[in-house]
Write a structure and sequence with these properties.
The complex is a heterodimer of chains A (614) and B (346). With 614 residues, chain A is α/β, with parallel strands linked by helices. Helix content of chain A is 40%, strand content 19%. Chain A has four domains: 207 residues, Pyruvate-ferredoxin oxidoreductase, PFOR, domain III (Pyruvate-ferredoxin Oxidoreductase, domain 3, 3-Layer(aba) Sandwich); 183 residues, Rossmann fold (3-Layer(aba) Sandwich), CATH 3.40.50; 73 residues, no CATH class; 112 residues, Rossmann fold. In chain A, strand 3 and strand 4 form a beta hairpin. The two termini of chain A are 23 Å apart. Chain B has a single domain, classed as 3-Layer(aba) Sandwich (Rossmann fold), CATH 3.40.50.970. The chains are: A alpha/beta (614), B alpha/beta (346).
Chain lengths: 614, 346
């Protein structure tokens, strides 16, 4: 709150001056299209290379150039990598938002700013570091048209000096960012970093309390975004057909996948691809191709966001009813409608779980980390083929488009599972088959692939009523038997899905439940609740829908269970209400955030404290 | 009673009887043009000696889209959603490039709800036979106009169509199909020759077949009725198809016949009827269709043919084996690849 204007507080109070090492957030406010992403990534990587746990969040507009954008880097010695609500160190490069950005800061925060903005006139309780960016960029970048891009690297040098980031690590990060092929550009940018560092050393005496110190908490770790992690998962799942229609925030998933496939899935002998990627004319075509390809035996997938999910509704129902595998990644963004295309939300849970008309329901996986993005893509393909049904991987913009620190991925431990597919030999042995007959009692029939060289291989796939031999039928008993079998199949799926992550605290009366990216805020909030309010909590993180018995047991053993949702309507709670008995529903409490930013711990803590009356 | 020896069953050149190409009993109206088309499909696949299990049949929704159940029972079939069969067929052919695709659609399924997918299928030149059973009317919902209804055409209820029709052949020629033909369900000989050429063609074949709806669009004032077609059908050429496997020498009179060799070595003979029509000439094909429309004629025959252009799957540079059944050793990169990628991300 900008009450500071009326009653300025001295920045030099003793509390504010206590040094704060490896525990702060840096926010860089720039203009979209100014090339700041490189400077921000270099800054983040420098901290990572110094062994400090770090996360980066890009808050950007739906625009190519000219609108405000903010990049937040959090350094956390305790390993918290969720968004931190409070900004400790601001780099104000955007004249348009600078005043408001400065007003929002807590007293004692630091501000590096473009000198002509004169931000130091606004408040007296902050530490200001004016930098004449335009004056500094001229000598290091003779080519005028590049100055807009290169001037951002100057703040890397300034911030590195002020926080004590090792310059060798900045240089290493910069070289990694540009790669060997862009050595000239790297040199140019390094000149700018040095100019910033030299200016800060000569003109900016350290006044704030934030600094970094080498740790050893990132050894062996990688930095990757969730879309690239899902792409890697798809490649190691053995995907063969990929279709897509560009939509934020999922486009980079398929673009990463194309990059990886081109490198690692070209047949060495022939130089030919062991995959096909097709950009469809829309999401309807994409999902149609996925189903056609899967019907003919391919491991096929598409990636999209909420508007695409809405368009895929009819085909998804066909996939459910005709029993065709499909993997659909939903990188969720803020809806309804176009909504806020570049902000994050877990807002498609209800619509996806029950996507399409008639009685339909679909399994969903909830990855929460880079490792899970990778492993759950592999799980999704195995589940889709094993159960012959569309499987949704529910990522979100925060997970998909931001950079995350992660342990290295583990090579899949078990072979690819192709499900119940009969070949010509087996058909001869069986002398025919009934496509939708529940032979094994798990609700899953046997299928054949078109092109199988056998006169008894064929069957007719249809979205209209059918009997267990795939023949057209409008009979009441055929219809109901089929729908009951599909319900049994859904129960088989429930048993096969990954179970939740559980942390039962025997002293706790209160439980917290969340899914996906909400875990970072929720896990940090548990520490805040205990540290600040003495509230013991248990914790369950869902990895899939339909939910298993563990969730009901968890709710039963606690007095109150807070379900953390990143949407307005408490969609996770709604899904639980669909299946829970009233006694369990009565125990559910809802914590909701739907502002479009990655969820932060303070928001969760404040709401639980309020509802608990602490 | 006398004992007779059954005559040897007639088979095609791969040893199959025509019964191997039959389908289920039709549930369409007696006299429906679509049934005649199903018969021609059975004959064409039989006579061409295509293994029925190598065929995949696709359709959307509507009367026409029911018909894949009435031919080639030994082929997998996929009756998908309204207007979206092209994407399903494309996906299946991506998964197995050796599948022999045939889609049967209608005028509503193709030109109304499905026009988006139809157009993009044209651009891709997917290798398959795509038949539009065109009667200008919605049958299953009992007689509403589709987007191919001609200007001035009259419904049974007396409603006159005053919207411009979509000519699927014009779109197909313009946007990338490599064999484009129009025919009439009542012209057995022409339709069979076109179907055989389409089966032999390595690319997308669009066959728009005027197929009268005896129940909702066969009355006076309809431009898609049997009577109207008998009056206005104007064949461009007399067609003969000589398959590659048939060792036949055909006497070709000088200057009277155009001969086009298809990808598999089979030959299509186009005998002049009144005018010398060159189906390689795209501009002329479009002009011919426009002139016919203005004059109220329905030109039928091979309108456009380009046997040389690469189809979509060939353009994708994928391996020859079906992608769908590649073994794990070829689809999951080895552990070292993951290690290498992880190292790059450190």
């Amino acid at each position: 709150m900008p009450t500071v204007e009326e009653s300025p507080v001295s920045p030099l109070s003793s509390e504010a001056q206590q040094s704060c090492v490896n525990d702060f957030s840096i926010q860089v406010a720039t203009v979209n299209g100014s090339g700041s992403q490189t400077a921000n990534t270099v800054l983040m990587r420098s901290l990572f290379q110094m062994g400090i746990p770090v996360s980066g969040k890009n808050l950007f507009p739906s625009n190519i150039a000219g609108l405000p954008t903010w990049f937040t880097i959090r350094a956390s010695k305790d390993g918290y990598i969720g968004r931190k609500k409070e900004i400790d160190f601001l780099v104000a490069m955007n004249a348009e938002t600078a005043q408001e950005d400065v007003r929002k800061l807590d007293p004692g925060s630091a501000v590096v700013y473009d000198e002509p903005l004169k931000l130091n006139a606004i408040r007296q309780d902050l530490h200001f570091y004016p930098v004449p960016f335009d004056k500094l960029v001229g000598p290091v970048c003779p080519e005028a048209r590049l100055r807009k891009l290169v001037r951002n690297m100057i703040y890397d040098g300034v911030v590195a000096h002020l926080l004590g980031i090792e310059m060798d690590e900045v240089r290493k990060a910069l070289l990694k960012q540009f790669g060997a092929r862009k050595a000239k550009a790297a040199d140019l940018n390094w000149g700018a970093v040095e100019a910033g560092r030299d200016f800060a050393a000569a003109n900016l005496p350290k006044a704030d309390r934030y600094s970094v110190k080498r740790m050893n908490a990132t050894a062996g770790k990688i930095i990757i975004d969730g879309n690239a992690a899902c792409a890697l998962g798809a490649m190691f799942a053995g995907v063969t057909v990929v279709t897509w229609y560009p939509i934020t925030p999922s486009s980079s998933l398929v673009e990463s996948l194309i990059g990886y496939l081109k490198r690692f899935r070209i047949d060495k002998e022939t130089g030919l691809a062991t995959y096909a990627v097709v950009q469809g004319e829309d999401e309807l075509a994409s999902i149609g191709m996925v189903l056609g390809a899967a019907w003919a035996g391919a491991r096929s997938m598409t990636a999209t966001a909420g508007p695409g999910i809405s368009l895929m509704s009819e085909f998804t129902g066909l996939g459910y009813y005709a029993e065709i595998p499909a993997v659909i990644v939903d990188v969720q963004r803020v809806g309804p409608s176009t909504g806020l295309p570049t902000r994050t939300m877990q807002g498609d849970l209800i619509s996806t779980a029950l996507l399409s008309h008639g009685d339909t329901k679909h399994p969903m996986l909830f990855p929460s980390s880079m490792r899970e993005c990778f492993s759950m893509m592999i799980d999704a393909f195995d589940l889709a083929e094993r159960f012959q049904t569309p499987v949704f991987v529910m990522s979100d913009l925060d997970l998909g488009m931001n950079n995350w620190m992660s342990d290295a991925f583990q090579y899949p431990g078990k072979p690819i599972e192709r499900g119940k597919v009969l070949n010509a030999e087996e058909l001869t042995k069986l002398s025919g088959f009934a496509r939708y007959r529940d032979v094994d009692g798990d609700g899953v029939g046997y299928r054949t692939l078109p092109g199988t060289n056998h006169p008894a291989a064929a069957y007719f796939t249809r979205g209209s009523g059918h009997n267990d031999r795939a023949g057209y039928s409008e009979r009441e008993d055929d219809y109901m038997n089929n729908m009951d079998r599909l319900a049994r199949k859904f129960e088989s799926i429930r048993q096969a899905l990954p179970g939740p992550h559980l942390d039962i605290n025997s002293r706790a009366h209160v439980g917290l439940v969340c899914a996906g990216t909400s875990r970072y805020a929720t896990e940090e909030s548990r520490d805040q609740l205990l540290r600040e309010r003495g509230l013991e909590t248990s914790y369950l993180r869902l990895k899939a829908f339909p939910f298993g018995q563990e969730l009901a047991d968890f709710v039963r053993r606690h007095e109150r269970v807070y379900v953390i949702d990143q949407n307005r309507d408490a969609q996770l709670v709604m899904l639980m209400r669909l299946e829970f008995e009233p006694e369990l529903i009565a125990k559910l409490r809802s914590v909701r955030y739907y502002g479009g930013l990655p969820l932060d711990a303070r928001t969760v803590t404040d709401e639980i404290v309020r509802q608990e009356g602490l | 009673m006398s004992t007779t020896t059954a005559p040897p069953k007639k088979t095609n050149h791969i040893g199959l009887e025509v019964s191997s190409y039959k389908g289920g009993r039709t549930t369409l109206c007696a006299g429906c043009g679509h049934n005649a088309i199903s018969e021609r499909i059975i004959e064409a696949f039989y006579e061409m000696g295509i293994e029925p299990w190598s065929v995949a049949k696709f359709s959307g929704i509507g009367c026409s889209s029911k018909s894949p159940a009435y031919f080639l029972n030994m082929a997998h079939g996929f009756n998908s959603v309204h207007g979206r069969a092209p994407s399903v067929a494309t996906g299946a052919i991506l998964a197995n490039r050796h599948l022999f695709g045939i889609t049967v659609s209608g005028d509503g399924d193709t030109a109304s709800i499905g026009v988006g997918q139809f157009i993009h299928m044209l651009r891709r030149n997917i290798r398959q036979v795509y038949i539009i059973e065109n009667n200008g009317v919605y049958g299953l919902t009992k007689g509403q106009f589709s987007a191919t209804a001609d200007l001035g055409a009259k419904l049974k209820t007396g409603v006159i169509n005053d919207l411009t029709p979509i000519d699927c052949c014009v779109e197909a020629i313009q946007l990338g199909a490599t064999l484009v033909a129009r025919s009439f369900s009542g012209d057995k000989r022409q339709l069979q020759a076109i179907l055989k050429a389409a089966i032999a063609h390595h690319g997308l074949s669009i066959i728009d077949v005027i197929s009268p709806c005896v129940t909702f669009n066969d009355h006076e004032g309809s431009t898609k009725s049997y009577a109207y077609m008998k009056e206005h059908d104007e064949p461009l050429q007399e067609l003969d198809f000589v398959p590659a496997f048939a060792d036949i020498t055909v006497e070709i009179p000088e200057g009277e016949v155009r001969e086009i060799t298809l990808h598999d070595g089979s030959r299509l003979l186009l005998k002049k009827l009144g005018r010398d029509y060159d189906p390689a000439d795209k501009m002329n094909a479009l002009r011919t269709l426009n002139e016919a429309e203005a004059a109220g004629h329905v030109v039928t025959g091979i309108l456009y043919l380009d046997p040389t252009r690469k189809h979509f799957i060939d353009q994708l540079n994928v391996v020859d084996e079906p992608l769908g059944t590649l073994p794990e050793s070829r689809t999951r990169p080895p552990r070292e690849t993951l290690d290498r990628i992880m190292e790059e991300l450190r």
